[in-house]
Design brief:
By secondary structure, the chain is of the alpha/beta class. The protein is built from 10 helices and 12 strands. About 40% of the residues lie in helices and about 20% in strands. InterPro entries: GP_PDE_dom, PLC-like_Pdiesterase_TIM-brl.
Length: about 230
């Protein structure tokens, strides 16, 4: 079962996962689909970009591996699940606004690009959402948080409009998850989620250290280790 597929989501739901992290790209038809990479290279050995492929063709390619879902289908088929959606393409922002607006209470939006994240949140609100979707820091915002908390400076504006910091514990030689960062996040009522953690003992260690959540490829392992 491949990542970001209907089968993978059903498996996570079956073991009791309440929160599911996913990624989205836009096809040549303008459909916002669950897919991580910009191209088909890693999964299919096909150099085409996702936005060069028709939705029907992509669905056919993914059918043996769990099945393609659009974001709209995901929200419809899993009405009790909360979703953490990483917006991978600029073209996804406007259509996501219309799709997510009725479901904003159960969606967290994130992106490596802070500008893309903000545009998507704005699109959701412009589409008539009753509540702003939760959001987590992009790469630039996360770097600022990490550097300024190391200097014991964490102004309120640094955390403006953020509900979560979603970070790796370590990035190359730099430790990202630090006591100073944790303290600053707590002061500003911002959750800390660590990715990607697949070892049950590491999950338990991080939760015991105070993180609010872990992002994992193994929902079954996480449910067994933490609940």
């Amino acid at each position: 079962m491949w990542e970001n597929t209907a089968g993978a989501f059903a498996a996570a739901h079956a073991v009791g996962a309440e929160y599911v992290e996913t990624d989205c790209q836009v096809t040549a038809d303008g459909d916002v689909v669950l897919f991580h990479d910009e191209t088909l290279s890693r999964l299919f050995g096909d150099a085409r970009r996702v936005d060069e492929v028709r939705t029907r063709e992509l669905a056919t390619m993914l059918a043996p591996h769990g099945g393609l879902l659009t974001v709209g289908e995901m929200l419809e088929h899993f009405p009790d699940t909360r979703f953490n959606i990483d917006v991978k393409a600029d073209a996804a922002a406007a259509p996501l606004g219309r799709i997510i607006a009725p479901h904003a209470h159960r969606v967290l939006l994130t992106s490596f690009s802070d500008a893309r994240r903000r545009r998507t949140v704005d699109a959701v609100m412009d589409a008539g959402a009753d509540i702003r979707p939760a959001t987590s820091a992009g790469q630039a915002a996360m770097i600022r948080v990490r550097l300024l908390t190391a200097l014991r400076v964490a102004p309120e504006r640094l955390f403006k409009d953020l509900d979560a910091l979603q970070i790796p514990e370590q990035y190359g030689p730099m430790r990202v998850l630090t006591p100073a960062l944790m303290r600053a996040a707590r002061r500003h009522d911002v959750e800390v989620h660590v990715w990607t953690v697949n070892d049950p003992h590491e999950m338990q260690r991080l939760v015991a250290a105070g993180v609010d959540g872990v992002v994992t490829d193994r929902a079954d392992v996480a449910m067994s280790a933490l609940f």
